[in-house]
Write a structure and sequence with these properties.
Distance between the termini: 78 Å
Pfam families: 2-oxoacid_dh, Biotin_lipoyl, E3_binding
CATH architecture of the largest domain: 2-Layer Sandwich
InterPro entries: 2-oxoA_DH_lipoyl-BS, 2-oxoacid_DH_actylTfrase, 2-oxoacid_DH_E2_comp, Biotin_lipoyl, CAT-like_dom_sf, E3-bd_dom_sf, PSBD, Single_hybrid_motif
Region (Disordered): 81-125
CATH class of the largest domain: Alpha Beta
Shape: globular
CATH topology of the largest domain: Chloramphenicol Acetyltransferase
Number of helices: 7
Radius of gyration: 27 Å
Cofactor: (R)-lipoate
Number of strands: 21
GO molecular function, one term: acyltransferase activity
Helix content: 10-25%
Largest sheet: 7 strands, mixed
Number of domains: 2
Order of helices and strands: EEEEEEEEHEEHHHEHEEEEEEHEEEEH
Length: 454
C-alpha cells in the first residue's frame, strides 16, 4: 500500500486559529516538487503562499477556494516519491505541521539559561512559511511563478483588488518579477484590465494547474411588494425564512470579529464627549496632524491613558513614548497600523508616516509588526459621518479617541453669539485602569491644544 502523508496547515505567523484558501496551484493527481507553491492562503494580514512539504503526487485536497481551514487541520494528502529527496522528518521547518493537540503535555524541566536563549531565538521561526533551518537570520519572501507570472503574494493580492490581469503586466523586477509599482502603473493606465485578454498559458512542464474559477453569480431577481395574484409576497417574518445566503467571515473581517468580541468581554468602557473649538485656527491646517499633536499633548499631561492594562494580573504599564494606532477602514475590514513615536514627529513627519501606513494597508504589504503594540488609538470616523461615538478600546490599551464630523455651531460669547467651527471629540477609556478625573483631565488637555491658533 502506498505511503500517504497528510500535510496539516501550519501556523502562518499571524497568531490566528485559521486561514482561508484563496487558490490551489495544483489539483489532485498532480506531481509537485518539494517547496513548490501548493496554495495561497489569506490570513487577517496578508495572502501567503504555502509551499509543498513533499516531492510526490497530490492525492487529496482538503478544501476548495473560499473554505476556511483551521491551523493544524488537514490541508492536503501526498504520496511521496520514493526516488526523490525528501525533507528529513527531524529537519526543522520553522513551523508545526501536526494536528492540534487536545491534551496539554506534561510540564518539562526548566531549561538552562543557554537553552532558554536558544528557544527565544527560535520562537519567531513560526512566522515564516516554508523550509528553513533554525537560526536568527531574516528570511525574505520569494516570488513564486504561478500561471507563468512571477510575483509575491502581496502583489497578487493587490492585482486582485485593483482588477489587474497579472499575465498582461510588464514586469520590471529582477528575473522578470512583477512588482507592486508595476501593478499600480497598470491599474492607472488601464493597460492590463482583468478579463480583457486571455492569461498566459501555463507550460506543460510546470506540472501545476490553477483551480477552476467559480462562475459569476447572476443578477438577483427583481423584488415587488405583491405577488402576481395581488397578495403580499412575504407571509412570514424574516427570522422564519430568509432569502439571503449566510456569508462566512474571512480574513481581516474574521479577525476583527474576534478582536471586538474579546474587547467587549474584557474591558469596562466609559465614554466622555465634548467639542473642540477651532475658531482660532489661522489659515488651512492639517486636521489629522493637529489631532495627533493634541493626543500627544494630552498623553504628556495625563500619562495614565497612554498605557497598557493587564486585567488578569491587575498591572498597569505607562509608556514614555506615544505610539498611536490609526484606524484605517478598507473593503476587507478594519486595520489599525501604529504611528510610532508620534511624540517626536512634526506635522510633515506625521503626514508622511500616515501616508506610508495607508499605502501599505491598501496594498496589503504592511508587516504584522506595524499592526500591534500601539499605546493609544485614534478613530477619525468624522471624515465619513457622525458626531459622537463609543469607539472600542482594544486590550491592552486603555483609551481610544474618536473624532467626529466637523460642523459650524452657534455659540454664546460675551455680548452675543457667533458661529464657530467645531470638532466633536469622544474619549472611551477602560475604567479599571483610569479614573473619571484622569479621563476628564486628558480630554481637557486635548481640547485645549486643538483650540490653539496653530
Amino acid at each position: 500500500m502506498a505511503d500517504i502523508k497528510t500535510f496539516h496547515l501550519p501556523d502562518l505567523g499571524e497568531g490566528l486559529p485559521d486561514a482561508t484558501i484563496v487558490e490551489w496551484h495544483v489539483k489532485e493527481g498532480d506531481y509537485i516538487k518539494l517547496d513548490a507553491p501548493l496554495c495561497s492562503m489569506e490570513t487577517a494580514k496578508a495572502v501567503v503562499d504555502v509551499p509543498s512539504p513533499y516531492t510526490g503526487t497530490v492525492k487529496k485536497l482538503h478544501g476548495a477556494p473560499g473554505d476556511i481551514i483551521e491551523t493544524g487541520a488537514a490541508l492536503a494528502d501526498f504520496e511521496p516519491d520514493a526516488n526523490a529527496k525528501q525533507r528529513a522528518e527531524a529537519e526543522a521547518t520553522g513551523h508545526h505541521h501536526g494536528p492540534k493537540k487536545t491534551e496539554a503535555p506534561a510540564p518539562a524541566p526548566a531549561p538552562a539559561p543557554a537553552a532558554k536563549a536558544a528557544t527565544a531565538d527560535r520562537e519567531d521561526e513560526g512566522t515564516v512559511v516554508g523550509a528553513m533551518v533554525s537560526g536568527s537570520h531574516v528570511h525574505v519572501e520569494q516570488a513564486a511563478s504561478i500561471g507563468g507570472v512571477k510575483a509575491v503574494p502581496a502583489v497578487r493580492a493587490l492585482a486582485k483588488k485593483l482588477k489587474v490581469d497579472l499575465a498582461r503586466v510588464r514586469p520590471t523586477g529582477a528575473d522578470g518579477v512583477v512588482t507592486m509599482q508595476d501593478v499600480k502603473d497598470a491599474a492607472a493606465n488601464g493597460s492590463a484590465p482583468l478579463g480583457a485578454a486571455p492569461a498566459r498559458a501555463v507550460p506543460a512542464s510546470a506540472g501545476r494547474h490553477l483551480a477552476p474559477e467559480l462562475p459569476e453569480p447572476g443578477a438577483a431577481p427583481s423584488r415587488t411588494p405583491v405577488s402576481l395574484a395581488g397578495k403580499a409576497v412575504r407571509t412570514a417574518p424574516p427570522s422564519v425564512q430568509a432569502s439571503g445566503q449566510p456569508e462566512q467571515l474571512k480574513g481581516v473581517r474574521r479577525n476583527m470579529a474576534r478582536v471586538m468580541a474579546d474587547a467587549h468581554a474584557q474591558v469596562v468602557p466609559t465614554t466622555l464627549v465634548d467639542d473642540a473649538d477651532l475658531h482660532a485656527w489661522i489659515g488651512k491646517q492639517d486636521i489629522t496632524a493637529r489631532l495627533i499633536r493634541s493626543i500627544v499633548a494630552a498623553c504628556k499631561a495625563v500619562p495614565a491613558l497612554n498605557a497598557w492594562f493587564d486585567g488578569k494580573n491587575l498591572t498597569r504599564t505607562m509608556h514614555p513614548q506615544v505610539d498611536i494606532g490609526i484606524a484605517v477602514d478598507t473593503e476587507d475590514g478594519l486595520f489599525v497600523p501604529a504611528l510610532r513615536n508620534a511624540d517626536v514627529l512634526d506635522g510633515a513627519g506625521i503626514r508622511a508616516a500616515i501616508k506610508r501606513l495607508r499605502s501599505s494597508v491598501e496594498d496589503r504589504s504592511i508587516p504584522a509588526s506595524e499592526l500591534s503594540g500601539y499605546t493609544i488609538s485614534l478613530s477619525n470616523f468624522g471624515m465619513f459621518a457622525g458626531r459622537y461615538a463609543t469607539p472600542v478600546v482594544v486590550p491592552p490599551t486603555v483609551a481610544i479617541i474618536g473624532a467626529g464630523k466637523l460642523c459650524h455651531d452657534v455659540v454664546a460669547v460675551m455680548g452675543g453669539i457667533e458661529v464657530h467651527r467645531r470638532m466633536p471629540i469622544s474619549l472611551t477609556f477602560d475604567h479599571r485602569a483610569a479614573t473619571g478625573g484622569e479621563a476628564a483631565r486628558f480630554l481637557k488637555a486635548l481640547l485645549d491644544d486643538l483650540s490653539l491658533p496653530n
